[in-house]
Write a structure and sequence with these properties.
Strand order of the largest sheet: 5-9-10-11-8
Oligomer: single chain
Shape: globular
Number of strands: 11
Largest sheet: 5 strands, antiparallel
Strand content: 35-45%
Number of domains: 2
Distance between the termini: 47 Å
Order of helices and strands: EEEEEEEHEEEE
Structural class: mainly beta
Length: about 210
C-alpha cells in the first residue's frame, strides 16, 4: 500500500477507495483535517492520488474519470482535543440548535438516474445543511462578522423529490477557536435523507 507522505503527486495510489468516511485509509500517525465533497458518487472507477503536499499535510484527491469526487486533507499527528462549546456563555449545557424547512424545487434536483424521478442533489443537500448551521451562529455575530463552511462529512441516505418539504436540523457540538462543528440531519415526510457533520469558521469582513 502506498505511503501518502512519499507518493508522487498526480500518480494513482495503491489505496482502496470506498464510500465510507474517510474514503481512503488514513495513516495511524495522522488524522483527517478536512474533507471537501464535490457532490459526485464514488463508483468502481474511482481512484485516489496525492494532489498537494506540504510539511505537515497532504491532500488526497478522489476522482472518477474527469470528475473530482472529494479532497481529503490529512495532517500529521493526533487531532486537537475538543472542548465544550461556549457560544452562549459559561455554564450553558443546552446545545444550540436550529431547524429550517426547505421546499425542494426543480433547480434543487438532479435526474442522473435514467428512468427515475428527479431527486434532491447532494450539493443542494449540503448547501441546505451548511446554511442551517450558519443560522445557529448568525444571532451571535459581532460587527462585520460572518461565517464560512470549511468542512463537510455528509451521508446522502435517501431521496427527496420536487415539492417535498425537507426538514434540516443543525446542533452545535464543539468549538475550536473560531471553528464551530455541528451535527446535521435532514428528513422528508419522516424519512431520513441525510446526516453527518459540517463546520463553520468565523471570519472578519473588515
Amino acid at each position: 500500500m502506498d505511503d501518502i507522505w512519499q507518493a508522487p503527486i498526480g500518480v494513482p495510489l495503491d489505496l482502496p477507495v470506498s464510500a465510507a468516511l474517510p474514503p481512503v485509509p488514513v495513516p495511524p500517525d495522522a488524522h483527517v483535517d478536512q474533507l471537501v465533497w464535490h457532490g459526485h458518487h464514488i463508483d468502481a472507477d474511482a481512484r485516489a492520488y496525492v494532489a498537494a503536499r506540504d510539511e505537515h499535510t497532504v491532500t488526497v484527491r478522489i476522482a472518477a474519470g474527469e470528475r473530482i469526487v472529494a479532497d481529503l486533507r490529512v495532517r500529521r499527528g493526533p487531532a486537537r482535543a475538543a472542548r465544550p462549546h461556549d457560544l452562549l456563555g459559561p455554564g450553558v449545557t443546552r446545545r444550540p440548535a436550529y431547524t429550517r424547512r426547505f421546499t425542494v424545487a426543480e433547480e434543487h434536483t438532479t435526474d442522473h438516474v435514467p428512468g427515475a424521478d428527479p431527486v434532491l442533489s447532494t450539493p443542494t443537500l449540503i448547501a441546505f445543511m451548511e446554511d442551517t448551521a450558519a443560522d445557529v451562529l448568525r444571532p451571535h455575530f459581532g460587527t462585520a462578522t460572518a461565517s464560512l463552511g470549511t468542512w463537510i462529512g455528509i451521508r446522502h441516505t435517501g431521496p427527496a423529490r420536487r415539492g417535498q418539504t425537507l426538514i434540516v436540523t443543525a446542533a452545535l457540538v464543539e468549538t475550536r477557536g473560531r471553528r464551530y462543528l455541528f451535527d446535521v440531519r435532514a428528513t422528508a415526510d419522516g424519512r431520513p435523507v441525510g446526516d453527518g457533520q459540517v463546520a463553520q469558521t468565523l471570519i472578519s469582513l473588515q
